């Protein structure tokens, strides 16, 4: 049993509250209700403004490299495999070859040493490999049609 208002069911949750605004007759309660509503709207406004500022700041500091098919990239593996000590773990794996871009920020990679192997990764885990290619590796890529 509820005093002064109807019982709300779980099916009423997505719908707006249908109870009248002037449920309370006390001026203090009405003013408190309007003050709470105003402070909630003000807090929402300032949180959205802060969120926009933080996003703008983050976007100024960040950049994403774009890769073309055939580009050589290093792959970040932050967690070592089982039974490999962390201090011996190489975080950046041998250069991989970009097969194609699955989206703006995801790429399918392959390794010349393992032709059947491929992996789709986010651009955050990649960095360009700026070293000269091995000629034997180039001939392998040419034979497979990947270069």
TrEMBL record:
<dbReference type="InterPro" id="IPR054465">
    <property type="entry name" value="Integrase_p58-like_C"/>
</dbReference>
<feature type="region of interest" description="Disordered">
    <location>
        <begin position="128"/>
        <end position="147"/>
    </location>
</feature>
<feature type="region of interest" description="Disordered">
    <location>
        <begin position="1"/>
        <end position="20"/>
    </location>
</feature>
<dbReference type="Pfam" id="PF22938">
    <property type="entry name" value="Integrase_p58_C"/>
</dbReference>
<feature type="domain" description="Integrase p58-like C-terminal">
    <location>
        <begin position="103"/>
        <end position="128"/>
    </location>
</feature>
<feature type="compositionally biased region" description="Basic and acidic residues">
    <location>
        <begin position="134"/>
        <end position="147"/>
    </location>
</feature>
<protein>
    <recommendedName>
        <fullName>Integrase p58-like C-terminal domain-containing protein</fullName>
    </recommendedName>
</protein>
């Amino acid at each position: 049993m509820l005093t002064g208002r109807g019982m709300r069911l779980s099916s009423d949750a997505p719908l707006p509250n249908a109870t009248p605004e002037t449920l309370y007759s006390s001026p203090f309660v009405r003013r408190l209700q309007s003050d709470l509503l105003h402070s909630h709207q003000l807090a929402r406004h300032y949180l959205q403004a802060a969120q926009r500022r933080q996003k703008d700041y983050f976007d100024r500091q960040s950049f994403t490299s774009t890769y073309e098919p055939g580009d050589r990239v290093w792959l970040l593996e932050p967690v070592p495999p089982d039974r490999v000590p962390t201090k011996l773990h190489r975080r950046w794996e041998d250069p991989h070859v970009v097969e194609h871009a699955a989206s703006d920020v995801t790429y399918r990679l392959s390794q010349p040493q393992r032709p059947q192997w491929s992996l789709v990764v986010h651009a955050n885990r990649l960095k360009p490999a700026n070293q000269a290619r091995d000629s034997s590796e180039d001939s392998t890529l040419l034979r497979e049609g990947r270069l």
